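Appendix B, example 12.
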Amino acid sequence: MSHHIVEVIHLRHIYPDGTIAIKDVSFRITHGESVAIIGANGAGKSTLLQHLNGCLEATSGQIRIGDMPLTKATLPDIRRTVGMVFQNPDDQLFMPTVFDDVAFGPLNLGLVGADVEKRVTEALIQVGADHLRAKPPYHLSGGEKKRVAIATVLAMTPDILVLDEPTNGLDPYARRQIMSLLQEFHHTKIFTTHDLDMVLELCQRTIILHEGEIRADGPTGEIFRNDDLLTACRLEKPLAMQGCPLCSREADTTKP
């Protein structure tokens, strides 16, 4: 199962304008882990994720997927292993129909005919979107686009699923659907999000990124109980850990 392992070694990324987005970041994620990478806006989360399947090239440092270092030569194999779902589904949906979008990956893997149909159907059923297969992507709602974007990745049968803000902009029903889907994916999954209640529910491990550096990496519950750490990184506890302000006010009014 070594191909399920993600290792980031002294990663550094500087954009052409001189912005240092990632500063000497290292971590290791093993098979089956569900890991959230959280932080305030501008912390470097999306930049970090885009290195995991070669969308961005590191200024220095190394990415390893299992025993394989990420290089130009290994990039095709790594992209078959690491499925990346971008924050904006419009970045992934560009074909005339949903079916065509989901089929794009399997076709590029060399599959044909019934094998492609099987991959597409299974992926769309998995995200609850098989009824959308003939629709143009631009006719879909935001939640539908998210599900189809995930299906385009699942059709490649990745061992590692990487998602950038998977529930961003979704209504509560669509959010719950995406969360259920992630719970059912039993391989390694890594995602960024501002939805800390989702992190609390889905992830045993959380990494806090702040100003391009890792400030914490450990059990999710411990991290969310560290008030000083959260304040320093411009984060708040999940709502589930904050208690109900209305209940507190009502309790105060009933005191003698």
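The radius of gyration is 20 Å. The chain has one domain: 2-253.
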